[in-house]
Amino acid sequence: MKLSLAWILDHIHGVSLADINPAELVKNLITATCEVEAYQEISFEVDRFTLARCESITADAAHCVSPEHNRRYQLPLRADVIPGAWYLVFDDRRAPRWATYADWSSSREGLLPALTVRSGEEAGGWKEHAERRDIILELDNKAITHRPDLWGHRGFAREIAALYRYDLTSEERLYSDIPVRHTGSAGEYNCAIEPAAPCKRLAITTLASIDQGPSFLPMAHRLARLDARIHDRIVDTTNYVMFDIGQPMHAFDQRKLAHKQLKAGFAHSGEQLPLLDGTTITLNSTDLVIRDGATPIALAG
Length: 301
Description:
The protein is of the alpha+beta class. The protein has helices at 5-8, 22-32, 153-164, 171-174, 217-225, 233-245, and strands at residues 2-4, 12-13, 36-43, 49-57, 61-66, 71-76, 86-90, 97-98, 115-116, 133-139, 167-168, 190-193, 215-216, 261-266, 272-274, 280-282, 288-292, 295-299.
């Protein structure tokens, strides 16, 4: 399991990366909390990258434009390129190329997908908010099996705040600037937990509409540093919440939920479940799933 110290510090008031001695922190965590296998200081040289909008594609190339550099790029065609979408481009003025997961210090292979930034920041304004430095902690998963409160960045922030007597940011203060729109009940949808399922709580809410699109660049950057795959705005938001507070979330298209009855329970041995990466896995009776009626639609554990 990997954790981002920059992300952890979102939850601690008045403390920055510059205030932390990573070697000392790791030593204290090993002594008081759990085994930390390694840590790595990483950097992101934002000035070597630019956002470019794909204007058109031809048989063997994608034609993109960077408003920041007022420059056109002809890049190798890729299967997922979408005209009109924005992509991160590594620009060394000699051989520009698509940005990769490795550029974000991820062990995943492949090209970064389309990304979104705030309106008006496409011409370089996004760099003002980019995290240029981070410290990645790598944990032994077995060391926190008995500590589900540590299965997220807030849990570790609470632990570090206790060790160093820092001020843990309250949830009210942390989320005060996030606009909340109450959606009321879940309408005709119901949820339930099957007997013997190792799930204590299952909740559901519905959204009448949602602004779908590529993942937000700052969110995608953090997820990639933890070796998570970047998908899109909806999926990455649910993954971000899980990494942040340790609470798993799933998002479903209402149009594809035929039974309107979501249940958590064990899978049946031999059941098939298609995943977001296009692969299909075979489940066994120890897998926890979310079902729509009798059909498994998500792997829950």
